[in-house]
Amino acid sequence: MSLVFSGIQPTGNLHLGNYLGAVRQWVALQAQHPCLFCIVDLHAITVPQDPAALRQAVLEVAAAFIASGINPDKSPIYVQSRVAAHAELAWILSCHTPLGWLNRMTQFKEKAGKAKDNAVLGLYSYPVLMAADILLYRATHVPVGEDQKQHLELARDIAGAFNRHYNSETFILPEPLIPAAAARIMSLRDGTKKMSKSDESDYSRINLKDDNDALRLKIQKAKTDPLPLPETVAALEGRPEAANLLQIYAAITGVTLAEAVAQYAGQTFSAFKKDLTEALVAHLAPIREEMARLLTDPAQLSVHLKNGQQAAENIAQNTIENVRQQIGL
Ligand code: AMP
Ligand code: TRP
After folding, report:
1. How many domains, the chain?
2. Which residues form the domain of 266?
């Protein structure tokens, strides 16, 4: 039996990278598989959060999921902290995870920066909680962007180590599903940096909440280079901004990168940017409007989250009881 599981942190705005790298894939997957989608607020608090903003961000992410096409009646959406088994399993797994494995995690190194001694423990053990999220549901497939690949490998290692230690088949080793295109959408200001919620400049990203004027302005201001658009995909080498914008265009209009390159070969950025803007507006405006509509009824969103929680708890309970039993708790 297959089960797709994924999660997104409720911090700030969801952006085009989250949408193309993750959420859009989830929408497609729910047609073929049972799915479970988690709003990972416990992961969000590994960095300081404003309580009111965090609460609001949870609702906004739920609205973004539904507006993007996730059907909450079919694919439960729920909040991580409401299912206590996540935290319990994370603790248990942390007692089965060698420090050496965590020391390899590049995301921690990036996020902790130079002042490692001041980084909080939760930031360091973040990948163990993520492993718990996935293993708790015996998920078989985990759609994520490229940046989460290493965490997925760790989840597999932890699952394998636990199973061997207790000579059991408690956990399933999850497979990452990384989209072939759009696995890494880059910043609009610097084509070598990932588009991210935490970038200081709002011009670096397209938010799902951006109105059409903001979309236009951001694409207009997006960094380019002085050359016309390339004739071949190979000629994108060394032109990260051109590559990123063409990649976005391809992903949003549903053509391949090669097709997008062929379509704009030799043209100016200004002609291409005009079409890119219109494609983004056509695709994102209905999602933004639906999100806004859903957010006018937070009580209804809470009902979806509550139903999702119950569905999640039903599965989680089985796993956690099995785990306690094996360990002797
Ligand atoms: P986060 O915003 O870190 O909670 O990420 C949520 C999901 O979006 C994960 O599956 C990430 O891999 C994916 N993601 C985040 N940023 C990008 C990006 N710039 N390009 C593609 N996928 C991304
Ligand atoms: N760490 C992921 C991210 O930042 C979010 C996440 C938490 C997640 N738990 C998960 C993703 C479980 C997939 C499965 O993007």
Report:
1. 2
2. 202-292
Q: Looking at the domain assignment, is residue 189 inside a domain?
A: no
Percent of the chain with pLDDT over 70: 100
- Catalytic status, residue 116: no
Ligand 2 atom nearest the C-alpha of 5 is 14
Are residues 211 and 114 located together in one domain of the fold? no
Query: Which ligand is located closest to the Cα atom of residue 129?
Result: 2
Predicted confidence band at 11 (pLDDT cuts at 50, 70, 90)?
confident
Of these residues, 116, 193, 194, 273, which one is catalytic? 194
Per-residue confidence at 182, pLDDT binned at 50, 70, 90?
Answer: confident
SS (H, E, C) the chain: CCCEEEEECCCCCCEHHHHHHHHHHHHHHCCCCCEEEEECHHHHCCCCCCHHHHHHHHHHHHHHHHHHCCCCCCCCEEEHHHCCHHHHHHHHHHCCCCHHHHHCCHHHHHHHCCCHHHCCHHHHHHHHHHHHHHHHCCCCEEECCHHHHHHHHHHHHHHHHHHHHCCCCCCCCCEEECCCCCCCCECCCCCCCECCCCCCCHHHCCECCCCHHHHHHHHHHCCCCCCCCCCCCHHHCCCHHHHHHHHHHHHHHCCCHHHHHHHHCCCCHHHHHHHHHHHHHHHHHHHHHHHHHHHCCHHHHHHHHHHHHHHHHHHHHHHHHHHHHHHCC
Give pLDDT, residue 1: 81
Here the CATH number for the domain that contains residue 259 is 1.10.240.10
* Nearest atom within ligand 2 for CA of residue 9: 5
Query: What is the model's pTM?
Result: 0.94
